[in-house]
Amino acid sequence: MLDIEVAFALPERQRIIQLVVPEGTTARQAVAMAGLEAAFPELPSVTFRQADLGIFGKRLRDPEAVRLRSGDRVEVYRPLQIDPKAARSERAARENR
Question: Which SUPFAM superfamilies match (predicted)?
């Protein structure tokens, strides 16, 4: 058995759920086990099923294949609200006025 955490945050609140999972559990499976839908009922459940995932800030390319190790913190990433390049361009345009 492995001790892990699953983390998700909105701008106004966050939740870190500690779990004990069997060896061989993938990052995606851990998110499903964490039950984040109940903690964030205002979000559609697809948010958690299809979200990008990472472990300690490093994005996972294939979260369905990454097997967890004891102590891992799986992070569920929210989709970007605005493209970072577009945000920089808008800021530069405002500053140059």
Answer: MoaD/ThiS (SSF54285)
